[in-house]
Amino acid sequence: MFVPKLVTTLREGYSLAALRADALAGLTVAIVALPLAMAIAVASGTTPDKGLVTAVVAGFLISALGGSRFQIGGPTAAFIVVVFNVIAKEGYDGLVIATLMAGLILIACGLARIGTWIKYIPEPVVTGFTSGIAILIVASQLKDLFGLDARAPAEFVGKLDALWTARASFTPAAFILSAGAIATIVALRRYAPRVPAFLVAVAGTAVLAAFFHLPVETLGSRFGEIPSTLPVPHLPHVELARLHQLLPSAFTIAFLAGLESLLSAMVADGMTGRRHRSNCELVAQGVANCASSLFGGMPATGAIARTATNIRSGARSPVAGIFHALFLLVFLAVGSRLIGYIPLASLAAVLLIVAWNMSEYKRVLKLMRMPPGDRLLLVTTLLLTVFVDLSMAIEVGVVMASILFMHRMSNAVAIKGGITINDDEGEDDIARSESAYAGQRDALPKGVEVFKIHGPLFFGVAGRFDEVLRAQVRMPRYFILRMREVPMMDTSGYEALQAFVERCHAKKCMVLLTGIQEQPRLLLKSMGALDDHTSLRLMDRFEDALAFIAAEDAASTPP
Q1: What's residue 472's pLDDT?
Q2: In what helix (H) or strand (E) does residue 16 lie, and over which residues does it extend?
Q3: Quick check: helix, strand or coil at residue 3?
Q4: How far is it, in rounded angstroms, from Cα 289 to Cα 410?
């Protein structure tokens, strides 16, 4: 479960041809990742070298230790908003601590084997969340897109207000460069998809800005000289009070990293027919984020677009991701001076394309044809992401989805009276002819009531289960509860059943459970419900319950 895919690949045998294919794929992905890593870092409120450091350190470890053959790790657009907010409130050192905490949370989640839980997050929550992030990314790039001179806050409404106030500082040259970069990316993706569109657009605008001496802001003019080497790793200064303050942000980073990495791994599985190891992947993500924080980097996760590029480029193994990190390190060492000439407007154009891809507007329109509850869930998650907070959006979205699921499940559970209502349980439970009882109460022995439960007996339906049974006008001598179609029972369902058994016991009524499945049976046993309880009996078949009642009546009848 925790063996990295790199180890698995090497055990299977690794040829020189595979090495060449991985090296070429790694170079291709590195070319794509270079402008993206810098653009994401700048949009997150930090320097471009932080994005490159993260792509090198975290990208290397995610590929070396991860549970997917083709995963490419690094900074992603999903982190922009949460990283920007943490830096604005706590400074960059606060982000480093939050990233370290998030890494430890991911390691714990992986070791606890809860990686598969990610798939239980409903589609409306994920889509609403990512679409909301896309809107926030667009808003964060309007400043550089139009070349505005404004200090925009982190909040969405406040940001738009500040940008509108600064509209007089509009720089035509910046807008022309960004528009040209967008047109170049769109054209290359359509007519020359193998060409690295992002890199061509960024390099082309840098040449134009330098040659014509355009009055636009560049990475060099805003951030100064870009370091050409990795920083020396060091532990951040940590205070207990600050850990508590940064914990919500750490959980948000961990959630985003876990969600996006496993979604990316699932996309890779769908493209290749392979299977990833989700818990191993979470541990690798945790280690990578811890290492990134030690090098002063940013949060990292699996990048879906770069992973897909890696696969299309012919990658054979995780070695391609390792090459991707090494090539980025070479680019940083050789081209750090050239990076300073890149206009911020071109990076804004790159992120606008990324945000458009994240928005998944076609999926949103499709999901808006869902039932009202799902539409409300999607819209609520989206609006909370944009106007309130990412953590709040996640929490409210998951809680709303859980309540919606419980409501639907409770409506799906049926508790019916009578012997048989189109009964199809099988001959092991109904060992009689179809006309033996015909579902009529008069066919039952006197003083016997029968209920059949369809669906899981959990906390969402425990109250209704109790109410239906309480509605009996007269307490019979025997209650037969047919439970073959109850696949599971939780503690609340058990408590409702136990309370009913206690009421029956007080009124000298015995409860017979027939056809009970393994999980409810084990729960009853572990809770001690079957220990010397004279008012509760388990029977394999409905006929066994009737035979038991007949024997009891015969034994109690005087000769």
Answers
A1: 63
A2: helix 16-43
A3: coil
A4: 41
420 φ/ψ angles, rounded to the nearest 5 degrees: -145, 130
Give the separation between CA 147 and CA 348, rounded to whole angstroms: 10
Show the tokens assigned to 112. Answer: 């606890």
d(CA 169, CA 51): 28
Amino acid 491: pLDDT: 80
Q: Which 8-state DSSP code applies to residue 274?
A: -
Alpha-carbon span 528 to 559, nearest angstrom: 37
Determine the Cα angle at 252 with ends 250 and 257, to 5°.
95
Q: Strand 536-539 relative to strand 510-514: parallel, antiparallel, unpaired? A: parallel
- Residue 448's beta-bridge partner residues? 478
CA atoms within 13 A on the CB side of 273: 1
pLDDT at residue number 394: 81
Predicted pLDDT of residue 201: 93
Which residues, listed in sequence order, are joined to residue 265 by a DSSP beta bridge?
A: none
8 Å CB contact between 268 and 68: yes
Prediction pTM value: 0.75
Distance, in Å, from the CA atom of 261 to the CA atom of 155, rounded to the nearest integer, reads 27
Tokens, residue 442: 């008069």
From the number of C-beta atoms within 10 Å of its C-beta (0-12, 13-18, 19+), residue 59 rates as buried
The per-residue DSSP string of 165-179 comes to: HTGGG--HHHHHHHH
Lookup: tokens for 494: 């058990």
Query: Taking Cα atoms as reference points, which of 427, 467, 447, 453 lies closest to residue 517?
Result: 453
Q: Are 531 and 498 in contact (CB under 8 A)?
A: no
Three state DSSP letters for 322-352: HHHHHHHHHHHHHHHHHHCCCEHHHHHHHHH
Measure the N-to-C terminal CA separation of the chain; round to a whole number of Å: 67
Question: If you ran DSSP here, which 8-state letter would residue 531 be given?
Answer: S
Cα distance between residue 86 and residue 66, in whole Å: 27
Q: Would you call 510 helix, strand, or coil by DSSP?
A: strand
Report the Cα 53 to chain-centroid distance in Å: 25
Intervals of the chain under pLDDT 50: 420-440
The boundaries of every CATH 3.30.750.24 domain in the chain are 413-556
One-letter amino acid of 478: Y
d(CA 202, CA 470): 72
Number of H helices, E strands in the chain: 21, 7
Q: Parallel, antiparallel, or unpaired: how do β-strands 73-74 and 536-539 relate?
A: unpaired
pLDDT digits (tens, 9 = 90+) for 330-347: 999 998 889 999 999 999
Query: Residue 356 burial by CB count (10 A; 0-12/13-18/19+): exposed, middle or buried?
Result: middle
How far apart, in whole angstroms, are the C-alpha atoms of residue 437 and residue 330?
Answer: 82
| 328, 334 Cβ separation under 8 angstroms | no
- Domain at 413-556, CATH class: alpha beta
